[in-house]
TrEMBL record:
Source species: Nostoc piscinale CENA21
Lineage, highest ranks first: Bacteria, Bacillati, Cyanobacteriota, Cyanophyceae, Nostocales
NCBIfam families membership: small_GTP
Taxonomy, superkingdom: Bacteria
Protein name as catalogued: Ras-related GTP-binding protein
SMART domains membership: RAB, RAS, RHO
Length: 165
């Protein structure tokens, strides 16, 4: 069985923990709990005839008071960069974190997730911004931890990228 470490990275309150909970346990809670340090979960997927054990590191969100400890990223096979569609500044934070992650662990597969797709009427993004990101060649998936939309796709897609690397 293959084991692959994947880190959840992003600003605080973007939905990293909710995405993991939806993927692992098929649940969603409206309550907000701040992640302290790192929370680790596992899920096994069957990909291309291989059992792949994903070890998901849900890192606390970065804000003006606390920076993500880059040492948590070591050994990662990939990462998920989470943006809250209702807060424009989380995209800027994601760009900054992507650069830091790449400087720390090199170029590994990642997916940029625009979360809270169920709240698009409150989104602070223009369609051109998404087009600009896609033109960089980044994988972008729109998700809703609340409804489950796109959540399975994110983890399956990243796992495939890691295995086929």
């Amino acid at each position: 069985m293959l084991q692959k470490k994947i880190c959840m990275v992003g600003a605080f309150a973007t939905g990293k923990t909710s995405l993991v909970s939806r993927f692992i346990y098929s649940i969603f809670s409206d309550r907000y709990y701040t992640t302290v340090g790192v929370k680790i979960d596992k899920k096994t997927l069957n990909l291309q005839g291989n059992q792949v054990n994903l070890i998901l590191w849900d890192l606390y969100g970065e804000d003006e008071f606390q920076k993500v400890r880059m040492s948590y990223l070591r050994g990662s096979s990939g990462y998920i960069l989470v943006v809250d569609g209702t807060r424009r500044n989380t995209l800027d934070k994601a760009f900054e974190l992507q650069t830091k992650v790449e400087e720390t662990i090199g170029k590994v597969p990642f997916i940029l997730v625009f979360n809270k797709w169920d709240m698009t009427e409150e989104w602070e993004f223009e369609p051109q911004e998404l087009d600009s990101i896609l033109s960089k060649g980044w994988n972008v998936i729109k998700t809703s931890a609340k409804t489950g939309q796109g959540v399975e796709e994110v983890f399956q897609t990243l796992a495939h990228q890691i295995i086929n690397r």
